Amino acid sequence: MKKTETALGLLAIVLAWVLAACSTGDGDSSYNTVDMQADKSGMQQAAFYGEWTVNKQVVDTARLEVRGTTLSVRLPEYYLTGLCFTESGQRIETKGQPTVLQAVAQGYSDNANYLTTSAGVRNSGDTTLYLQGSIFATVDGAHYRIDLLADESGSSVYRTDTGRWTVGIIVSRLLLVNLDDQTESERRLPTKVYLYYNAKSRI
């Protein structure tokens, strides 16, 4: 294994998780493992079908589009709006708009490339928070943008032996922006939520 720059925080968690997931034998037989060692096409321009999981439970499915260092994927909207709007009987309609994440290379091994991912940064007082993405929803007629925030960036792993991606996102705060009157409110989660997207097949 080549000596590489060590990825920190969630990157290590994602790496351990994806290695465990890839050991279950669900590889796509259409890929030749030897050829994929050198094939980086999945990091240049590709589309995938995959699943969002929380605590290893599937909460949504989505399409991931990769264009160089940009990852575009729809977040698990109904799960995330459930963290914000907890009153029974609320009418919630999500918009299905993908979030765009920028990936920055951190290191690599024989079988994988490791990257940090975020949609930007936001300053909150003396604290710099990473924007993990945004979703849009209409709740009882009011229109909202919901920003996912955390004090550390997300991460992603591209497996060169399978040609698939895993994307990890942390959420510790939710910023609700009412798009009708531009008022903002922040909700801090009691514990961090870890979302994982796993590409299952290439489209």
Question: Describe it for me?
Answer:
The chain has helices at about 10-20, 35-40, 40-45, 75-85; strands at about 45-55, 55-65, 70-75, 90-95, 100-110, 110-120, 120-125, 125-140, 140-150, 155-160, 165-180, 185-200. The chain is α+β, with helices and mostly antiparallel strands and about 200 residues long. It has one domain (about 10-20, about 45-200). The chain has an eight-stranded antiparallel beta barrel. The chain is globular, with a radius of gyration of 17 Å.
Count of individual beta strands: 12
The average pLDDT value, as a whole number, equals 82
Biggest sheet record = 8 strands, antiparallel, barrel
Provide the gyration radius in Å: 17 Å
From the helix content, strand content and strand pairing, which structural class follows?
A: alpha+beta
Total of DSSP H or I helical runs spanning 4+ residues: 4
Uncertain residue ranges = 1-38
Write down the overall geometry: globular
Q: In sequence order, what are the helices and strands, one letter per element?
A: HHHEEEHEEEEEEEEE
- How many structural domains can be distinguished in the coordinates? 1
Q: What distance separates the N and C termini? A: 30 Å
Helix content: 10-25%
